[in-house]
């Protein structure tokens, strides 16, 4: 059964390029309620832990370096069918393949610097949300 929460991060590229407000507007205009939100920065160890599932992949080192290079915005979002609907809103990982009207089509610059992260399952949404937010920070 699908849950009604998902997790997202506005990645360092989009934060650096000044897109926080526009991305949050797209999220709320997409019907999502923001139930947790913070500006933070991942340490290298944080990024390694968060992306441990990709540790054996060739892009892991670059991913860790990228995600720890500057601030991110972490958020837990709420909406019916949250994970699937948010994956639709963010668009394909490759912005050249992302649909018009998606966050990545509007703000991603490459496959590697693709503006936002979105959980890929209900289970991962819960794990990722708990990684970034204590229980008292989730509303």
Secondary structure layout plus pairing:
Layout: E1 5-10, H1 12-16, H2 20-29, E2 33-40, H3 44-50, H4 60-67, E3 72-78, H5 82-90, H6 103-107, E4 116-118, H7 122-132
End-to-end Cα distance, whole Å, is 21 Å
Number of distinct helices: 7
Strand tally is: 4
**H/E order of the elements?**
EHHEHHEHHEH
Fold-level CATH name? Alpha-Beta Plaits
C-alpha-based Rg, rounded:
14 Å
**Full CATH superfamily name:** Nucleoside diphosphate kinase-like domain
What is the total number of structural domains? 1
Provide the structure class. alpha+beta
Principal-axes shape call: globular
* Major beta-sheet overview: 4 strands, antiparallel
Helix content: 25-40%
Strand line-up of the largest beta sheet = 2-3-1-4
The CATH architecture term is 2-Layer Sandwich
Mean pLDDT: 96
* pLDDT < 50 stretches: none
**Beta-sheet strand percentage?**
15-25%
Pick out its properties:
139 residues; alpha+beta; Alpha-Beta Plaits; four-stranded antiparallel sheet; 7 helices; 4 strands; 40% helix; globular; Nucleoside diphosphate kinase; kinase; NDK-like_dom; ATP binding; Nucleoside_diP_kinase
Structure in words:
The structure is a single chain. This protein is of the alpha+beta class and 139 residues long. The protein has one domain: 2-Layer Sandwich (Alpha-Beta Plaits). Helices cover 40% and strands 17% of the residues. It contains seven helices and four strands; from the N terminus they run βααβααβααβα. The protein has helices spanning 12-16, 20-29, 44-50, 60-67, 82-90, 103-107, 122-132, and strands spanning 5-10, 33-40, 72-78, 116-118. A four-stranded antiparallel sheet has the order 2-3-1-4. 34% of the residues are buried.
């Amino acid at each position: 059964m699908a849950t009604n929460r998902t997790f997202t991060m506005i990645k360092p590229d989009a934060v650096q390029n000044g897109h926080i407000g526009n991305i949050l507007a797209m999220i709320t205009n997409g019907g999502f309620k923001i139930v947790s939100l913070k500006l933070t920065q991942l340490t290298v160890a944080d990024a390694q832990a968060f992306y441990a599932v990709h540790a054996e992949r060739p892009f892991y080192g670059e991913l860790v370096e990228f995600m720890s290079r500057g601030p991110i915005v972490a958020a837990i979002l709420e909406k019916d069918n949250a994970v699937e609907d948010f994956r639709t809103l963010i668009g394909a990982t490759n912005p050249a393949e992302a649909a018009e009207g998606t966050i990545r089509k509007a703000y991603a610059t490459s496959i590697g610097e693709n503006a936002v992260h979105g959980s890929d399952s209900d289970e991962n949404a819960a794990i990722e949300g708990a990684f970034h937010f204590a229980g008292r920070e989730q509303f």
